[in-house]
UniProtKB/TrEMBL annotation:
Residue stretches of biased makeup (Low complexity): 34-64, 96-124
Region described as Disordered: spans on this chain: 34-138
Organism of derivation: Lacticaseibacillus nasuensis JCM 17158
Name under which the protein is recorded: Uncharacterized protein
Length: 536
């Protein structure tokens, strides 16, 4: 029977009965059963038969009645056919006439329960009846249980998020009037941090932005010129903020910094503190920023500085000027090395002039601190020739050269010569020269450089009645002068006398004589000397 009642309840209400509902139903059955039992005892046999028949009918009828709700005070069921008025007690059933003189005792009747009309439901899908709750006297909603449920937690989270959303939006928006007031306050307080908060973060994230804000405070643009749009450096912009709010901000043109090669080669410093190239990846805020770099070399440290401006152009380039404190050294043999302040460097002479440096700005005359040393062709050895002494005369053109090559005089105080080798080579040259000059022919003249013959003159021998015989040469060592050549060579200037004798064809007389010749020789790497030009 209970299973059938549960199925009927579920069919009528669209859900299974709760434990309280089932208990109320069971109590109702028990009360009906008790009433039927008492009636059966007090009546005669025919009445007992009728009562026994009525009891199951009453029980069945009670189990078939449709429950539409429960009293929130007592938990008693409310049926669909109950009226709004309390049930009237039933009159006692008429007793059959009998010989008994005493009235029969009546069975106790169950107390009538207050009946409630079902409440009218709003239009829409039929809602299942709500079981009684423990939310409090007269309450049909348990808030504590609801808020702990998944649906309650979602609903609460949404409400909290909406409250936070509108609170944040209200706290972080900024009207035009508020912006002007905050700008004026930051300027009056000379507070760069407050000033930067009025700009978008993307424009103030540079490591140097605070210094830029200090510069902006010194400029002190009038708030009215900014708010009216007259100011072209600092402007006002607005944007929708969190959908429902509007935010006004100050705005500048953030400047991207590009690094030239000179800014990448050496460490960068800003106000004496080392910075990295990563520090310059964020766009610059308004202002002028000066960076320094130290260019270290074997000739000392050279400081350079360069400035870039932010806030007005989209991009700029940080480039350090090249130092002007360089020295040009002459060309010469690559066996000659350069020293600075007595210390060897990795610089050697080349077959062309070259610049060396940079030198510190504290060195007034770097050339005076440079010296040249080396040996060439086993003929000339130079020891610490001061570059200032080498270049002070400006040099002279290379012999028989069509280009701008120069040769520079070496101070004899720094040069040692192998005079034996020089004399041997000059003597060999003089013999060829004497023969060519007296014969008027260059035939057999080999100890000369290319171009020598094009610029030299032969006198020839007009005295046909004489026979001249070469004897030797002589020269003064102090008269020998050496030069560094831009073509990578050493040149020697050697004035000498060619001594010879002549006699007439009739052998009537013999005399000694000499000819003065000054030749500029080019020294080969093997020590041989080749005539390069004549000096008369």
């Amino acid at each position: 029977m209970d299973n059938e009642w549960a199925k009927a309840f579920e069919a009528a209400n669209g859900r299974k009965p709760t434990f309280a509902e089932f208990t109320a139903h069971q109590q109702e059955l028990d009360q009906a059963s008790a009433a039927a039992s008492v009636t059966a005892t007090s009546q005669a046999a025919p009445s007992q038969a009728a009562a026994s028949t009525a009891a199951p009918q009453s029980t069945a009828a009670a189990s078939q009645r449709q429950v539409v709700g429960y009293d929130t005070q007592t938990g008693a069921p409310i049926y669909a056919d109950d009226s709004a008025q309390p049930a009237q007690p039933q009159a006692p059933a008429p007793q059959p006439q009998a010989s008994q003189s005493q009235p029969q005792p009546q069975a106790p009747q169950p107390q009538a329960q207050p009946q409630f009309q079902p409440q009218a439901q709003p239009q829409g899908p039929t809602q299942p009846p709500v079981p009684p709750t423990t939310g409090g006297a007269g309450s049909g909603f348990d808030f504590g249980a609801f808020i702990k449920s998944p649906k309650g937690m979602i609903t609460g989270g949404v409400i909290i998020a909406l409250i936070a959303f509108f609170a944040i939006g209200k706290l972080t928006d900024c009207t035009a009037a508020e912006l002007q007031s905050r700008y004026s306050a930051a300027m009056a307080a000379k507070d760069p941090a407050k000033l930067l908060k009025l700009f978008p973060h993307s424009q103030t994230k540079s490591k140097f932005a605070k210094d830029g804000a200090k510069q902006l405070i010194k400029v002190n643009y009038a708030a009215s010129s900014i708010m009216s749009g007259e100011n072209q450096v600092v402007r006002v912009t607005s944007k929708n903020w969190l959908l429902f709010f509007k935010k006004y901000q100050l705005n500048i043109t953030p400047t991207t910094v590009k690094l030239a090669k000179s800014a990448k080669q050496h460490a960068l410093y800003y106000k004496g503190k080392k910075v990295s190239t990563n520090d310059l990846k964020a766009p610059l805020f308004y202002g002028s920023y000066t960076f320094t770099t130290t260019q270290s070399s074997q000739f000392g440290s050279v400081k350079a500085k360069a400035s870039v401006a932010g806030g007005e152009r989209k991009s700029t380039t940080l480039s350090f000027p090249k130092s002007t404190n360089y020295v040009t050294i002459p060309g010469g043999p690559n066996t000659f090395k350069v020293s600075y302040k007595g210390k060897a460097t990795d610089i050697t002479l080349k077959a062309k002039r070259q610049k060396v440096g940079p030198f510190s700005q504290n060195v007034d005359d770097p050339a005076s601190e440079l010296t040249i040393s080396g040996t060439y062709g086993n003929t000339v050895t130079v020891d610490k020739a001061n570059l200032s002494d080498v270049t002070e005369n400006g040099g002279t053109s290379l012999p028989n050269s069509d280009d701008d090559g120069m040769m520079y005089e070496l101070p004899n105080s720094a040069v040692t010569y192998d005079f034996k080798n020089i004399k041997t080579n000059v003597d060999a040259f003089a013999k060829q020269y004497f023969k060519a000059d007296h014969s008027g022919s260059w035939s057999g003249f080999t100890l000369v450089t290319a171009g020598y013959k094009d610029n030299a003159e032969l006198s020839g021998d007009d005295d046909s009645d004489e026979t001249d015989t070469y004897k030797n040469i002589d020269f003064t060592q102090a008269d020998v002068q050496s030069y560094l050549g831009d073509d990578g060579s050493i040149y020697l200037y050697v004035p000498f006398n060619i001594n010879y004798t002549y006699k007439y064809d009739d052998d009537s007389d013999t005399e000694d004589s000499s000819s003065y010749v000054a030749i500029t020789f080019k020294v080969a790497q093997d020590g041989k000397l080749y005539g390069a030009s004549n000096s008369y």
